Amino acid sequence: MRVLKSLAELRKWRQQQSEVALVPTMGNLHDGHLHLVKTALERCDNVVVSIFVNPMQFGANEDLDSYPRTLEADCQALDALGVSAVFTPQVSDVYPRGLDKQTRIEVPGISDILCGASRPGHFTGVATIVCKLFNMVQPQLAVFGEKDYQQLQVIRLMTQDLSLPVEVLGAPTQRETSGLAMSSRNGYLSPEQKQQAAALYRTLQKTKVELSVSTNFSELEKAAEEDLSQAGFVPDYFSIRNAKDLQEATAEDPEWVVLAAAFMGKTRLIDNLRVSNTSAR
Ligand code: AMP
Hints:
Layout: E1 2-4, H1 7-15, E2 21-25, H2 31-43, E3 47-51, H3 71-81, E4 85-87, H4 91-94, H5 115-118, H6 122-137, E5 141-145, H7 149-161, E6 167-171, H8 191-197, H9 199-210, H10 217-230, E7 234-242, E8 255-264, E9 267-276
Parallel strand pairs: 1-4, 2-3, 2-5, 3-4, 5-6
Antiparallel strand pairs: 7-8, 8-9
Adenosine monophosphate binds near residues 32 and 171.
C-alpha cells in the first residue's frame, strides 16, 4: 500500500493507474469506514482512501483541534484490507491560498437546513473538499456513508450540478450491537453515555413504526424529542423529511428519512433512518 503525503505524489501515482475508487475520510477509522472500503473494493480493485481532517467544514467552536488523529493504526487497517493507496495531504497543500481565499462550492437549498442550520458553512466546507478530492484523485467511483445522510445528498447534488464524472455510491450505516451508529466522535463518550446514546437509534426506530399509522409529522417529531430528552440527550433537531431533497415531509412522499441530531454531554451525535411510505402510490 502506498502512502501518498502530497498532491504531487498523488498525481504522479494517479498517472500510472486506470480506474480508481475513492473513499474520503477524516481518519480514526472504525468498522463503518472499513465497510465503505470493502464496498469500494467489491466494485474496483484499485481503492484510494483519503485521510484529511478538513478545517473548512469545522465551525469556530467545534472540535477541529481535538479531533482524533490515528494515522498509523488507520494505515495498518487499510493495508490489511488490500487498499492500493492512502492519500494524506497537509492543509497547506489542499488550501495553498488559505481558507479565506479558497474558491468555495455552495449547494443551495439543502446546505442551510438541519445540520447546516446548526453548523453554518459546514456543507460548503464538505462540498468544497469533496469536489477538490474528486479533481485530485479523479476517481470513477466514490463511496460515502448513509450515516451522514444530508452530506451524502449534498454530494450527490453537487456531483450532478457540476457534471462531475464520478459515480457516488451510498453505503449503509454500521452500528454497535446497541444500535448506536459507529462514529469517531463516539470516542468522546463515557461508557455510561455510550449506553444512553443508543436511545437515538431506538427513537428513530419507534418513529419509523409510528409512521406506518400516522402522518402527523410534527406530533411524531415532538414526541421523539421528548423521548430523547428523557434518555439524557439535549436534542438539536428531530425531523421527518422527504428522503430525496430533505424538504419537509408530505403524506405523498414515496420515501421519508427521519433525521436526528442531539447532544450527549458535549458530544453532538447524528443518525437517520429511511422509511418507505407504504400508502404512497
Ligand atoms: P468521517 O471520517 O466521519 O468524515 O467519515 C468518512 C465517511 O465514512 C463518510 O462517508 C461517512 O458517512 C462514513 N461513515 C462514518 N460513520 C459511518 C458508519 N457508522 N457507517 C457507515 N459509514 C460511516
